[in-house]
Amino acid sequence: MRGHDTRDGRLLQIEGFGVMDMMGMLKATSKEELIRFAVANSEYIETTVRAEAKDTGKPCRKLVMIQNLAGVSSRQIRSDFLAMLQAVLHVIVENYPERMAVAYFVNLPAPKLFSIGWGIIKGLFDENLKRKFVFMTASDWNTQLREVVADEHLPAYLGGTLRDPDDACSNLLGTGGIVPDSLFRMNDDSFSVVVVPARGAHRIEILAIAGSVVSWEFTTKGYDIKFGVYYVGTEEEAQEVLKTKHKGDTLVDNNRVQGASQEVISGEIFADKSGVYLLEWDNGYSFMRSKTLMYKYEVASPKENAE
């Protein structure tokens, strides 16, 4: 929600971070899409700030942000989510460094839980920016917040008098909630589903011409998996190479993909040679547990890339 408190040249922005289903968001979208959304939102704020100054005849150069962390739990403070958050924040910090006046974080979760998440992402910010973050615990945030934001600009659930149409200002803020399974990207019919057995692997051989782009998306149910990409050789060479344990030249290291069960992992490579490319999901390190894998891939020809 964006208010209109421009008495000191600042635009009020209130968000309900804690009520979002972070893991659901990661399954329904990608890190790249979230970054694009963050940039689009930042550009919208730039436009809004300029419009506020023009409409009121007062300077409006800075943002006051209120972030409600109510509902944040250990389920959300995970390495995969924090990595996504770091990527999004990095883009904002690098491109919109001086727009924020102060950010109030209210309803902090358990101190230990919060300190873990903050400890990971705070390295993105310089000391000047860090000083703009003000953290308020559940016991004192209400009083502190009302000292800096006028009641008429503060939703009733945060201690103010603003209602639209309810205490949570649902029309302005939105209520968040759980992302339904139907929006998860792996429910798309274009995803194939296989069970990779314990100590086994699933491989896809792809024929691509030089100049093509080979892309992929995948996720798993419940557990992580290793993933790697290889150039095997020409069609003739590949027939011989694949008869052995050798998989060709490594293009993407065969590493264990943390968070594969919480989000849709995506990537791509440029095929600089014509021939056979191999995508491999490796479960060889698991002695007892099979993995349900959902994946799709695409080969874009040089002509398609030019378009």
Alpha carbon gyration radius: 24 Å
Overall pLDDT confidence: 79
| Structural class estimated from helices and strands | alpha/beta
| Termini separation | 39 Å
Please write the CATH class name of the largest domain: Alpha Beta
How do the SSEs run, as a string of H and E?
EHHEHEHHEHHEEEEHEEEEH
CATH homologous superfamily placement of the largest domain: CRAL-TRIO lipid binding domain
Secondary structure: helix percent: 25-40%
> Largest sheet, described in full?
4 strands, parallel
For the secondary structure, the number of strands is: 12
Q: How many separate domains?
A: 2
Number of helices: 9
Strand order, main sheet: write it out.
Answer: 1-2-3-4
Q: What name does CATH use for the topology of the largest domain?
A: Phosphatidylinositol Transfer Protein Sec14p
Strand content: 25-35%
Flag low-confidence runs.
1-7, 14-19
Query: What is the level-2 CATH architecture name of the largest domain?
Result: 3-Layer(aba) Sandwich
Envelope shape = elongated
Give a topology summary.
Layout: E1 10-15, H1 22-28, H2 31-56, E2 62-68, H3 79-95, E3 100-106, H4 111-121, H5 127-130, E4 133-135, H6 141-148, H7 170-173, E5 192-196, E6 201-208, E7 213-220, E8 225-233, H8 235-241, E9 249-257, E10 265-270, E11 275-282, E12 291-300, H9 302-306
Parallel strand pairs: 1-2, 2-3, 3-4
Antiparallel strand pairs: 5-12, 6-11, 7-10, 7-12, 8-9, 8-11
